Amino acid sequence: MIKATVYVTIKQSVLDVQGTAVQGALHSMGFQEVDKVRVGKYMEMTLNTTDRSEAEKRVRAMCEKLLANTVIEDYRFELEGA
Amino acid sequence: MIKATVYVTIKQSVLDVQGTAVQGALHSMGFQEVDKVRVGKYMEMTLNTTDRSEAEKRVRAMCEKLLANTVIEDYRFELEGA
């Protein structure tokens, strides 16, 4: 079993409306020190495989095909376990 | 400037419908090795402060009040920088 952790974030060049909304909400609640917020997705998966290099290829394919919209999003992932 | 990274995840005891949907989609795309998926939120913030222990208290308060729904979600965060 390999555990994969995938992080999907909006590209720096793309306006993050959700982040801007969270920042506005935090400001209005008195958290004035919050300068910039960017919101992304975080996914944890367990994979029924023990081949790490194969898992890396497969997770990359999942990100490209489904998990991230690569036009506006970046992704990165970490693998843990055998 | 302190950089805070916040991870918000659905509690283990709560059904993660979004994760189940992603798992189903991955299976139907041929990624049969995917065993379990849990989807969470990932937030990066920059804070206009240099007091790390104060920042920790403030980020915890932000999580409790806005960023996480503590009834069904867990959160954790990391601080980086002075």
UniProtKB/TrEMBL annotation, chains A, B:
Any one GO CC term of the record: cytoplasm
Secretion signal: which residues?
Answer: none
Catalytic activity annotated for this protein?
N(2)-formyl-N(1)-(5-phospho-beta-D-ribosyl)glycinamide + L-glutamine + ATP + H2O = 2-formamido-N(1)-(5-O-phospho-beta-D-ribosyl)acetamidine + L-glutamate + ADP + phosphate + H(+)
A Gene Ontology annotation in the biological process aspect, one of them, is: 'de novo' IMP biosynthetic process
Q: What is the first-listed, main subcellular location in coarse terms? A: cytoplasm
Location of this chain's protein in the cell: Cytoplasm
Task: Tell me which UniProt keywords the record has, alphabetically.
Answer: ATP-binding, Cytoplasm, Ligase, Nucleotide-binding, Purine biosynthesis
A molecular function GO annotation: phosphoribosylformylglycinamidine synthase activity
Q: Which domain of life is it from?
A: Bacteria
Q: In which pathway does it act?
A: Purine metabolism; IMP biosynthesis via de novo pathway; 5-amino-1-(5-phospho-D-ribosyl)imidazole from N(2)-formyl-N(1)-(5-phospho-D-ribosyl)glycinamide: step 1/2
Q: Does the keyword Cytoplasm apply?
A: yes
- Whether Transmembrane helix counts among this entry's keywords is no
Stated EC number for the protein is 6.3.5.3
Q: Which residues cross the membrane?
A: none
Q: Write down the PANTHER family for this protein, in alphabetical order.
A: PHOSPHORIBOSYLFORMYLGLYCINAMIDINE SYNTHASE SUBUNIT PURS (PTHR34696:SF1)
Q: Which family does it belong to?
A: Belongs to the PurS family.
On subunit structure and binding partners, the annotation says: Part of the FGAM synthase complex composed of 1 PurL, 1 PurQ and 2 PurS subunits.
**Function (record text):** Part of the phosphoribosylformylglycinamidine synthase complex involved in the purines biosynthetic pathway. Catalyzes the ATP-dependent conversion of formylglycinamide ribonucleotide (FGAR) and glutamine to yield formylglycinamidine ribonucleotide (FGAM) and glutamate. The FGAM synthase complex is composed of three subunits. PurQ produces an ammonia molecule by converting glutamine to glutamate. PurL transfers the ammonia molecule to FGAR to form FGAM in an ATP-dependent manner.
Task: Write the protein's name.
Answer: Phosphoribosylformylglycinamidine synthase subunit PurS
Query: Organism, per UniProt?
Result: Paenibacillus contaminans
Which gene is transcribed and translated to give this protein?
purS
